[in-house]
């Protein structure tokens, strides 16, 4: 009997990540505008999936399917685009990641007396949801859990409102942080739950509680997040289907192309089978509508919006759709640099420095319908996308080694602290 059970477990282990057999990932470097221009058509032609976008000074990382690898390499060489192998066998790199996650789980569960915490490992959706409920029950005076809607597949979309005045003091600026819109970016939700921890359970910056009201939404896209755990590690989109026949074969919308600002005009697709499908219409997704409604509900006093993505070690600000500067560009840049410096002061030496700049210009890639642009467009003065630190460059695994999650959440918190304080100063000045 025992052997049978073991056999079944192995069968499951072997079946994992099989869809990525033969896939490879490459570091890709572009150093001229001509190379940037040459790369763009290859993305569609070879269905390239960028896990991290290259900047002119830093390599990106791209997933390439088996049948496109030879042609991709040939075209890259012809255009002078540099490339080198990152994972020669993506499936085994993912298997290795799973071992690291299992080992991390053994360590943390032992350390926490059997409890799993949402910021000490890459966790299933239940662990994150349970943590939010726990916070709401244990700290009812400051934390309120809100579940305004269910996802396409029926999972509650949950966020926490944190306030010493129950959101009744209109003079307080609001800070809104979301994560997990892109399902596979697993380092994102832990940075948001760590912020909850630091505002409720382990308060070392009490001014942040007194001065601000907080809204923290760790997993905008629970369906996709769950699917990236159970089925397809590189799942990025939501899981919705619509009346487009292709959407039955290729479910899901790219949430960060679904916002109603210059929707579907650039860096997005109307083809449901692409990773950047903008959806049948702006705000077609309940998940993005939840974020929209939070933004509008508190718009008059929302000073800072952060949306957590990975990876790339970047802090990016509007306008991402055309690379132009907003009227508030100076504030956006100054506060962005202050956040990056704060992170840098706590970063590990082997992590790349944060790059701060205009979304489109830093990654040479214009996108329409992002939450960062939308929030700024409707009036949030400071709106940023964080591209958190990513993969380990040491070989074997694919994603950031889970032992670095603790480091990333702590250093990211330093950025949030400085961003909040600077936003508070700005907001107060605007209203005198
Ligand atoms: C906060 O306000 C809401 C109504 O907006 C109310 O239902 C809730 O009980 C209040 N919570 C506390 C802790 O006062
Ligand atoms: C709070 O955080 C500080 C700094 O990391 C740590 O030294 C302390 O043990 C923590 N306290 C609790 C109750 O977790
Ligand atoms: Zn993302």
TrEMBL record:
Residues 1-15 form the signal peptide. The active site is at 387 (proton donor/acceptor). Pfam families: Peptidase_M14, Propep_M14. The keyword ATP-binding does not apply. It comes from the Eukaryota. Residues 121-423 form the Peptidase M14 domain. GO terms for biological process: proteolysis. GO terms for cellular component: extracellular space. Its cofactor is Zn(2+). One of its GO terms (molecular function) is zinc ion binding. PROSITE patterns: CARBOXYPEPT_ZN_1, PEPTIDASE_M14. Keywords: Carboxypeptidase, Disulfide bond, Hydrolase, Metal-binding, Metalloprotease, Protease, Signal, Zinc. InterPro entries: CARBOXYPEPT_ZN_1, M14A-like_propep, M14A_act_pep, Peptidase_M14. Belongs to the peptidase M14 family. This is Caboxypeptidase 4. It comes from Mamestra configurata. The lineage of its organism: Eukaryota, Metazoa, Ecdysozoa, Arthropoda, Hexapoda.
